[in-house]
Write a structure and sequence with these properties.
Two copies of one chain form a homodimer.
Chain A (H helix, E strand, L loop, with lengths): L2 H4 L3 E4 L3 E6 L13 H5 L2 E5 L21 H14 L5 E6 L1 H12 L4 E7 L17 H13 L1 H13 L5 H12 L3 H13 L13 E8 L5 H10 L3 E9 L3 H4 L1 H13 L1
Parallel strand pairs in A: 2-3, 2-4, 4-5, 5-6, 6-7
Antiparallel strand pairs in A: 1-3
Helix pairs in contact in A: 3-4, 5-6, 5-8, 6-7
Organism (chains A, B): Hymenobacter jeollabukensis
Keywords (chains A, B): Hydrolase
GO molecular function (chains A, B): hydrolase activity
């Protein structure tokens, strides 16, 4: 099984410089479609699906490998190696941002910069760190997901997407969640919400754009501030929008932030 | 400019047998995402965007070439040649169905069968033929589109999609329409709605599945009956659903019809 098939890799666009998109939890590469047309003329776009999502090969799922985000980061590096990508601008959303950061830590020479949308190195509240969730809240959410994945998606997608006045956005995210292999998605959620990658960040030396949303239930403003503090070569942009998926709910603002950073 | 870049070709799935998807007006390849996961294990999936849609190269647009559906059919054949596809099962939606039929007429050896969703060889009412629209209605619609493409999309997407109780479906189609290059989309609409390819059908000898929807404002039941009559090697299935996009609004029923035909 080739890497390109395993991760359903799709190369598009007509530029020289590579943008590599790393999806967040429960999403496949079609989630980026609102911002891609504006980028296709100038960049080479590399899209893929995590194993268990989209049109990836679910048979390639290995519970041991994917028991930490490192397994997903390895797949990012596999895609880079297979396509011989260099000077990559990695665009990562949510847990995809942290997966991208781990990939850049492991092979820094591969990456020019990281554009991270709603990143968080740790969703749990800890001493001197506000991740946004108490452990009991995460445990309850994961138990809910264990019991009924579809009901979980129906309940949590609107909270994640925000923008309650635009229900089509949440409907899209619910559908996206429900397209995943539920057994794999449940383990991926556990790995996502219980990981603490704060100690890895000292080894991240790639320039980063951090894009946070003013009202985001998953990655609160304190997390963006934390990342900006511990990553010396980072720029923090706070979009005046709500929700945890600005590439879906606020594509113009998201594109503007990405393009301004890349032009600088 | 390679064909693969021009038409944003994406190859996915893990089977040997090829399914080639030909999009309808105003849609890009992400419109198929509701039915693809169920097909990815068993088939090789070839997706692409017409020039002017999705992540295709709009600079490749040639008003002369694309002044008839034959220009779009040539692109289908270019994709087949570039990937050396054989024994292709072509899945075409709406005008994509007729584009696929023209491709199969031109290179019959390339195609094993056609699965046509809501096909129509002619949208105009003519003597002894009920296409569904009087010329004045088409002209008025095209004038509306000329004046204000976005307003046209807002007005017509709900009529095309049907299923008014599920507004997220129409919202998706509105968004899809508005992602197109409007100048190209306007000419494509004109070519779509004013073409009459009935006389070509006598030269189509590839086996066809015709999938029509019980309530479809764009391709009424008379059109399916007409196609079934003039295409001896065709099977007609009427889904008990509404709308012109069953791969979006009724993916399970659509898949069932496709899979039953392919298994027979």
């Amino acid at each position: 099984m080739s890497v390109l098939k395993r991760n359903n890799v799709h190369v598009a666009g007509r530029g020289q410089q590579t943008l590599l998109f790393v999806n967040g939890f429960g999403c496949d590469q079609t989630i980026w479609r609102y911002i891609l047309p504006a980028l296709a003329e100038q960049y080479r776009l590399v899209l893929f699906d995590h194993v268990g999502a989209g049109l990836s090969d679910a048979k390639a799922y290995d519970p041991t490998k994917y028991a930490s985000l490192q397994g997903y980061a390895q797949d990012v590096l596999d895609v880079c190696a297979e396509l011989a990508l260099t000077d990559v601008t990695l665009v990562g959303h949510s847990v995809g941002a942290m997966i991208g950061a781990l990939a850049a830590i492991q092979e820094p020479a591969r990456f020019q910069r990281l554009l991270l949308l709603c990143p968080s190195p740790c969703y749990l509240n800890e001493a001197d760190y506000h991740g946004g969730f108490d452990r009991v809240d995460i445990d309850n959410m994961l138990s809910f997901m264990e019991r009924d994945f579809v009901e979980w998606a129906d309940t949590f997608a609107p909270l994640i997407m925000g923008n309650p006045d635009r229900p089509t956005l949440s409907a899209e995210l619910i559908h996206s969640f429900c397209q995943n292999d539920p057994v794999i998605a449940k383990q991926f959620a556990r790995v996502t919400f219980l990981s603490d990658n704060r100690s890895d960040l000292a080894r991240l030396h790639t320039p980063c754009l951090l894009v946070q949303c003013a009202e985001d239930l998953i990655a609160p403003l304190e997390v963006g501030d934390y990342l900006h503090t511990v990553l010396p070569d980072s720029k923090l942009v706070t979009l005046p929008v709500s929700g945890h998926c600005p590439h879906v709910s606020a594509p113009r603002e998201t594109l503007a932030a990405m393009e301004a950073y890349m032009a600088a």
